[in-house]
Amino acid sequence: MESSNGKPPQGKEEGMAAAAEGSIGGYESLHRLLESNLSPELFKEASRLLLGLNCARPLEAISLPGATTALAEAHDFDVQAFRFNADKEQMRQPRIVRVGLVQNSIAVPTTCHFADQKKAIMEKVKLIIDAAGASGVNVLCLQEAWTMPFAFCTREKRWCEFAEPVDGESTQFLQDLAQKYNMVIVSPILERDINHGEIIWNTVVVIGNNGNIIGIHRKNHIPRVGDFNESTYYMEGNTGHPVFETAYGKIAVNICYGRHHPLNWLAFGLNGAEIVFNPSATVGELSEPMWPVEARNAAIANSYFVGSINRVGTEVFPNAFTSGDGKPQHADFGHFYGSSHFSAPDASCTPSLSRYRDGLMISDMDLNLCRQIKDKWAFRMTARYDMYANLLSEYMKPDYKPQVISDPLINKRKA
Amino acid sequence: MESSNGKPPQGKEEGMAAAAEGSIGGYESLHRLLESNLSPELFKEASRLLLGLNCARPLEAISLPGATTALAEAHDFDVQAFRFNADKEQMRQPRIVRVGLVQNSIAVPTTCHFADQKKAIMEKVKLIIDAAGASGVNVLCLQEAWTMPFAFCTREKRWCEFAEPVDGESTQFLQDLAQKYNMVIVSPILERDINHGEIIWNTVVVIGNNGNIIGIHRKNHIPRVGDFNESTYYMEGNTGHPVFETAYGKIAVNICYGRHHPLNWLAFGLNGAEIVFNPSATVGELSEPMWPVEARNAAIANSYFVGSINRVGTEVFPNAFTSGDGKPQHADFGHFYGSSHFSAPDASCTPSLSRYRDGLMISDMDLNLCRQIKDKWAFRMTARYDMYANLLSEYMKPDYKPQVISDPLINKRKA
């Protein structure tokens, strides 16, 4: 499924996933790069540090059924699976949940009819959902705005046609699969809010394992950076920080740019989340240095699991656009670098999925680890939230004076 | 200054720095391990990802004066120096500051007379401060409770003898050096609060470049984990989140365990900090997986520089103690793994100092980068602090009800 030197497979479809990606080389993941080039002993050590495995619980690879690996081989998507362990408790049974993350490129060029683009994406994602179902995944999360290319870079409003009501086509499609596989499915879509003037939201629909819609959440923080022109299309969400109590644990969704906001992560934690998904669409030059940092920090700070998802590939649009950086117009947003992975509350994480190919990341996680880490580290008890509630209330006042202590001798001597 | 295979130097003083350290091997840093074992080309790529250098500004090594490197060689401490660059602006001149971090082991066994222990530490730290002075460092931060062994693991109250008033011996010692080198010095000590019943605090004294005391800050969050029995000795700080306006920029100090609290980092940012130091004392088995994550996340989320410091070596105490883990009594706290480093608001960071030896990390940083990143990413403008002020106020109420949406069919089908 991958070449031995850690480089991505050849034969990308023309115009959909450009090979050139600037300064980053062509390997599938840092983990695989090191695995291919270090001695087994050194790789083990590097891996221990990089994945935060300096603890009593090593990360174990899970062997998956043939039906899953056959689908992955036939359709060239990356599949990886790992187990996070927890301590045995005397008063609670383990609560082991199998969780999956899906990353994918678009399926046909963006010049195709919108209906054909959507249909082709749904067909390819169905194969990955089938693979997850064959492995008994309990909770599965798809990527941000999974039914469409991430066209917000263009600022063209015609892409709003991809928006759907909460109970629209893609939700119905997933409700059938949720019921078939007894699986909770988290579906991030572009929402058209029929009951409020047909406005647009960036929304996630949470579908229960009986195929019912449990509820929705709307993206809280909308980016104003690079070509992420999403603020042209939709406003900040109005759904607070809901946690969804499902048959397989308490889950929440921090959509994309919300991962840069520690308070957003915190709020889902305060409401009791045990797994927080971060379905994203983000590109290499801008955010790749942050990608391995923010989700792990959130898992540590809030004592829950995080599932990070990024779409993959380069999407080329029909009309060229500029990027506010003085460079010539161009027709793509840059390379979405995939690299979906899980982070755990004990500071460990899995390796990442491919930077180039579609993928399914599976982890078994004992949700008991969340409370075990809360008891061990006591972050919530030592957090002094009252102090910060007061500070933020003061800070919101237009006449807020920062707490600054100035050196009275600051100008005495030439610095 | 280091062996070619990335392993630590031999010949540690007996009883002060035990060699055995469990599952982690004997290399000085992950960066050096990879440098010694990857081809230059692959090392460059791995390094780019690990240090977050996927941006227009590469990290450059700085060449230091002979006086600095001679001191480092003569006294066997690690010295590294790097430059973070920023874009040129039209309306502001660059504001380049040279910042230093000091990590050190204790100097004589903990069985020695307390006065001798303190004197020996001050003598060895003076050599590192001299090296920083010779390099023209503008702002220097020492490690947490730098005048003493980190004896709180023992729960023995006799170590409180190391506490000093804010204007005590160690402050006076540093005031002279601050004036001599025209250097701001940040000095974390165990404080005895003479005017409030001689109580104990974990405090940082900020000394201006004219040798004056600018002010203090007291540790906001006190750990309750492992052998960090600090809550036996002192309470949560009462100084808020001050930012110190010095001749070389606005600095703040997040002491040790405060780094696990994103709100603590946030508050210093809201008050305008451009550099936040995190003087720490932390051991391998417990926190090493978190160490490369939390400071970088804080630098990213708050658009400021972070200087992370951890003491180094293994401190063996006169009386054995147990650790609440069912294991036999022992007389040491584990290995303090050094690894001091800088993180920048653009998500890049420096390599780390040695995991085994004393060290001085120097960075030149253009503080203009902070505002440039604020403008680019707009995290503060998109943060919706009003929403979180309300949430935290509600959360503090004893009858707070988490925002939970339960699947009504949760028990319909066996999960």
TrEMBL record, chains A, B:
<dbReference type="GO" id="GO:0033396">
    <property type="term" value="P:beta-alanine biosynthetic process via 3-ureidopropionate"/>
</dbReference>
<dbReference type="Pfam" id="PF00795">
    <property type="entry name" value="CN_hydrolase"/>
</dbReference>
<dbReference type="InterPro" id="IPR050345">
    <property type="entry name" value="Aliph_Amidase/BUP"/>
</dbReference>
<comment type="similarity">
    <text>Belongs to the carbon-nitrogen hydrolase superfamily. BUP family.</text>
</comment>
<feature type="domain" description="CN hydrolase">
    <location>
        <begin position="97"/>
        <end position="367"/>
    </location>
</feature>
<dbReference type="InterPro" id="IPR003010">
    <property type="entry name" value="C-N_Hydrolase"/>
</dbReference>
<keyword id="KW-0378">Hydrolase</keyword>
<dbReference type="GO" id="GO:0003837">
    <property type="term" value="F:beta-ureidopropionase activity"/>
</dbReference>
<dbReference type="InterPro" id="IPR036526">
    <property type="entry name" value="C-N_Hydrolase_sf"/>
</dbReference>
<comment type="pathway">
    <text>Amino-acid biosynthesis; beta-alanine biosynthesis.</text>
</comment>
<protein>
    <recommendedName>
        <fullName>Beta-ureidopropionase</fullName>
        <ecNumber>3.5.1.6</ecNumber>
    </recommendedName>
</protein>
